[in-house]
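Morning!

This is the sequence you dropped in the shared folder:
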Amino acid sequence: MAGMTWTIAPEPYDSPVAAALWRAYYTEVSDRWYLLHEGRRTDPVELEREIAATTGSELSPPTGQLLVGRYGGEPAGSAGVRLLEPDTAELTRVFVYEHLRGRGGAPLLVAAAEEAARALGARRLILDTRSDLVEARTLYARLGYAETGPHNDDVYAEHWFRKELVVN
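The structure's back. Tokens below.
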């Protein structure tokens, strides 16, 4: 894959590309949870219900943004931000297809999401993740996110992070 490069651009939350990335992201994190806690994959009916229940509309302007990373021109990952308060945005849906991990896409997606959050007026980004998503926790720490106390009561959240954004 020599010569392949990443490009990152805004994407409508309801585009076919965004829908495919959301399905892949949700399937992976849901299956990982069920395999760890119940020794099985997500029930297909539950999976379809939960994917359909989360439209992603909060990741659209003027208070949000969904970004899609393409590797060699093909959709490869995503990251989203949404304003929670005028100066605080949430980082969400950070995902890269498994076969493209390790090629530098996740840090680029997070950097683009930070820039999008700044453009929305945010001075800080917050996020939550789970204990079993070790790669995500490692990524956030490497990119300067500090682990904090809880900022929400999401039943699946086990780790919370925050980063003050430098205003360019």
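Headline: The beta strands are 6-10, 64-71, 74-85, 88-96, 124-129, 146-148, 159-164.

More detail when I'm at my desk.
O.
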